[in-house]
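Notes continue from the previous slide.

Worked example: a multi-chain complex. Inputs as given:
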Amino acid sequence: MIEEEEVDLLLSDLYEVYGYDFTQYARASVKRRINRLCSLDKFPSFAEMRYRVRSDPSYLKRFVEELTVNVTEMFRDPLFYKTLRTSVLTKLVAKPFVRIWHAGCSTGEEVFSMAILLKETNLLHKSLLYATDLNPDVLDAARKGIFPLGPMKQYSENYILSGGTNDFSTYYTAQYGRVKFREELAEKMVFSTHNLVSDRSFNEFDLILCRNVLIYFDRNLQERVLTLFEESLGPLSYLGLGAKETLKFSAIQSKFKQIDSEKIWRKIA
Amino acid sequence: MAKNRVTPPKAGGCQAVLIGGSTGGLEVLLQVLPALQPPLPFALIIVLHRKNTADSTLANLLSLKTSITLTEVDDKDAIRPNTIYLAPADYHLLIEQDSTFSLDDSEKVNYSRPSIDVTFESAADVYGSSLVGILLSGANADGTAGLNAIKKAGGVAVVQQPDTALVAFMPQHAISTIYVDYVLDNQAIIAFLNARR
């Protein structure tokens, strides 16, 4: 079991040697993931793990991948997507151009879910989906639009619950246990690395989605990121968060109005 | 089943009571919650294995059974005494040193998210000896490692008496694997909790 001070040492190594700053991540979760990795990779002691992280850049890659959580799915929380369909995208129809930012997009399942929604609401042709993550490897996976076949049945059920009326399988072709989504869905996607800890705003958006990313940050970093989002949203644009994330602790809350009882807020001031 | 009684827990000083359960755990809570005498001097944190749909049916059902404030946890909520917290579906529930919750949607542990082990281990790290863990009915080995972490940190480990559990596997697994302080039926669990002042 790794102690608090040892977590501090590892995190300051990561920053000093590689420039990755995890010091404002939610500590309980970081500590648990470091402990998990230490036993998964069978390090006999903390010192040996620390040495490996400091001296082996190829291991660093694994370390960062395992430290950050890359769990995502398509149409997760279908009612969230239903509200996007009925209460948000309908308001964007009149715009000449729709810019959407998926912050912390991981392997891209939510970006493809959004592209399907945009396609079905006739917005895709005039939309741009910016998908960012701090980890270049997950972005490479996202860019390909290839996902495991296994969860597609669940995704298809989610899609129907979100108000989808097509046959979900028409959006992809399946081969060798994997599926590839239709090219036209990916045409409007731009993938790029962006670190919410250190990078700045890069555009103004009509909708920002950042779901189940803030839960890994401490309150100070959450506030920094929410302020970054607020600065990146035009008037009357939208912010979507994860099912258990909230603006209730944030100074930006007063500038936003929650849509229905979903985790979607509209910028009103 | 009066085995395993060792050091009597310190009077008072209990900051949090964790209850973990799976199949059959809900039935115990439906009996225990109405019998708790407010104000609770501790925070009561419940981790139940549940379907991964994000609806509030379970929280509504449980809150009907008690006059004490019961809330399904949002990320970064503060942990306060005399409040009952329910782990949300599809997230692990962790506890930070500043007595706030963190949520985590990483891999399932023991086929479960929320996992009882994850919350118990995290709480043991923060609360040390001022913590009680109670493991209820279930068909899963989740919770044993967590109870063990609570014991190691100096806290108190309680297990539902297996022959009173709908599914004995989970409490029995803990009793056979680790050292627990108390093995209690529903009435004794109620009395135990009402005596934590």
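Summary box: The helical segments of chain B are 25-35, 57-63, 116-127, 144-152, 169-177, 186-194. Strands of chain B lie at 16-21, 43-48, 69-72, 83-86, 92-95, 101-104, 131-135, 156-160, 182-184.
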